[in-house]
Amino acid sequence: MPSPDVVSWTTIISACAQADQGNEAVEIFRSMLHERELPNPPILTILLGLSGNLGAPQLGQQIHTIAIKLGMDSGLVVANALVSMYFKCSSADSLKVFDSMEERDIFTWNTIITGYAQHGLGREAIRMYQLMVSAGVLPNEVTFVGLLHACSHSGLVDEGHQFFKSMSSDYGLTPLLEHYACMVDLLGRAGDVQGAEHFIYDMPIEPDSVIWSALLGACKIHKNVEIGRRAAEKLFSIEPSNAGNYVMLSNIYSSQGMWDEVAKVRKLMKERGVNKDPGCSWMQIKNKMHSFVTGDEEHEQIQNIYATLWELYTLLKATGYVPDTDFVLHDIDEEQKESSLLYHSEKLAVAYGLLVTPKGMPIQIMKNLRICGDCHTFIKFVSSVTKREIDVRDGNRFHHFRNGSCSCGDFW
Q1: Structural domain that includes position 295
Q2: Could you give the 3-state DSSP secondary structure of residue 53?
Q3: Which end of the chain lies in a sparser environment, N or C, as judged by fewer CB atoms within 10 Å?
Q4: 88-118 pLDDT tens trace
């Protein structure tokens, strides 16, 4: 049987990537290299995308090295993929690649604007937008999603309003649901939950689940029970099987000690057969991916991880850390609540990172869901006590923990 050619390898690797089989795609790529078949730009682009999505910077760097050796790193498509990959892996190399590019298209500019937005660097995103316009590149709908997202995660309310208006007045672009969702998020995060709700009812198009979820998330941050309940009812109607909406409403109720309401939500979930998505965190150590779930018992070093975590917990409490038990959705005593918080997946990942990496080395973690408030506070304390830089990319944004503070400014 003849060996596959590069087109066949591209088709196979692409199929794996589209089926969310990233590890299989990487193994097939390695088999391809073993067969002495050289990759083409589409394969490199696919693998760089996988590296970013998996939060695997070492893999991404290896692909970058291969691209350089093959003279493919300066091509526009591969260079754009490199910028995106390095941003997703929290690497400053994204800017090095961007600055070295001789040619840039709208995708390049959108990638860097969105990258800054995800890292909570709103002013930098706006600066890149201004450079883009100065270069004669016209923004599109994706550009404004990135800008509004940047404003939302940086608390730039006035600037967000200006960009929203500029879409239509300056560029003739009609705002889409994504832009309205960003505006709801912008208002809600800034504390104007009532204004965000009014904004939704004044929309010229029917709001979708993303918009109502943004409002519910704002209610969770600002503990607005009444508006939160209304947003949740809309979401239960639109997507009755989405566990995250029930959990978010339960968080609002539990923060106010409304345990009867929490019980009602849990009962509703049971009646509808809705199960809570398990929290999962993962990290790459020496080319190997390590994953953790809340209350994990499967990892090969789990006993050492628990021992490290308990030592860390004791140290942090002595330095002022107080577990935020509002994030426990059960009416149990405080000691039990603290115990249940301790074994969240991101805390296990942090403990493992401290256990196996050299002192002073940064720790990078990926999480499938939004980081909870207690874990956020916990990791801030860890970064202060251990003098480590800790980056967490959750389901919503990047968090860069340095010396006891987070890049999000506790605004997520």
Answers
A1: 280-406
A2: helix
A3: N
A4: 998 889 999 999 999 999 999 999 999 999 9
